[in-house]
Amino acid sequence: MHAWSQLTSLGFAIVGFVLVALPRTETGNFADAPGAIEWPAARLLRFPVFWAGLILLGYIAVQGFNPAWRFIRVAHSWWIEPIDHVSWLPSGVDAPFVRSNPWRALTVDGSLWLLVCAVWAGFLRRKSYHALFFILVCNAFSLALLGVLQKVSGTDRIFWSYLPSNTAFIASFIYPNHAGAYFNLMVALAAGLAWWHRQRARRHLENPGQAFFFMFLAVFTGLAVISTYSRMSVVLLLVLMVLAGGAFGLGLFRRAGRIRDRLGFLLLTVALAGVIGTGLVVLRTAQVWERLADQVAHPVAFDRDRTLARQATRDMLRDRWLLGWGAGCFRYNFQDYIAKYPEIYYDGDRRMYWEHAHDDLLEFPAELGAAGMLPLTGILGYAGWQLGRRRFWRQAVSCCIVLGCVLVLLHAWVDFVFQNPAVLLTWGVLLVGAVRWAELDQHRNRLISPVHSNH
Hints:
Layout: H1 3-21, H2 40-45, H3 48-65, E1 67-74, E2 77-82, E3 92-94, H4 102-122, H5 126-153, H6 176-202, H7 209-227, H8 231-256, H9 262-284, H10 286-297, H11 299-302, H12 304-319, H13 330-338, H14 342-345, E4 346-347, E5 350-351, H15 360-389, H16 396-411, H17 421-454
Parallel strand pairs: 1-3
Antiparallel strand pairs: 1-2, 4-5
Helix pairs in contact: 1-4, 3-4, 3-15, 4-17, 5-6, 5-7, 6-7, 6-8, 6-16, 6-17, 7-9, 8-9, 8-16, 12-13, 12-15, 16-17
């Protein structure tokens, strides 16, 4: 929401990228890093996401340099007026940066691109990714603890000091659905780390305490998802727990036959107890129960507003499907299309203002057009190809991360979770981490297998 925080994020991303781009003096081969450590710039030049992201950022910059409309504000009213522009180039709206425009979108997307490239080129060992994941889940636990304490204390202020625009905030997230999406990502990551440490403990490489530690973080962070009162987040949390728990149990019984792996069985029991406990919290939390019951009883009426908003977004997309309306500019032109649906355009005598479509899978194409979506689709396709090539489903951490990322992508189908930079940047970094973890783990297994075969 605030420009200063997004500019701060961009500043840190630039510093990280510059540090990673510096040449390294250390060389050599490592058991968990294929090949010799090389100059990071060489890795970036061979990284397709680097070039595709650069093309996408250039596309958004053209939209900013070639506005087709100008934002006009007088007193408490505003409107946009068409202005001269190059019609065959991508265009956007000349609007204030603090409100939203292509340059504001470039700030967030540029931070994501720099961060992803820095992680890809700078983190060459599995130990580095483990440290990153550890910091992320501990940070999520701290936020979850903050959110629970805020709920218990009944405060109406974030950090007990800042009065937000939304009274349904959770931790430092002003919009609870964004918090739910973020915490679901962290639940998936913590569950993957718990399973990975369980495998290491089973091979007597470490004590089982770390597996239980990460399982505790997963369960407690899941409790924070419940505390958001976000219906979609709670549903996706249950899906995540069922799928992850099923995979955990299947692997346990396939490898152990009868339950001989006591550590694995105990860990699974703890996880199931956590799921049951959070389920009881849901049933005892009147606010969550009432909202879910209302949605079940009146599903059509409950989702009518967002269904109509999606229809208006499709109308908008059809009119400029090739070049889009401009990154960060959805809210300006959308008012003309939502006016065709008076059920969601008026609230009594007051006009309603929609900043987002509550469907990122439609809003991004509407803003970027088919031409702008090409490099973005290429990035996601490359990530999917790399994950499949590395057989990510064989690595617990990568598998759980991918599961979490897919569920958040489903959440983006019914809400605007990727408009929150915390969710967007974390999602992108975890996807890179899943690819690299699978690659490094595959390489490590190839090095260890011959040693085992000799024995």
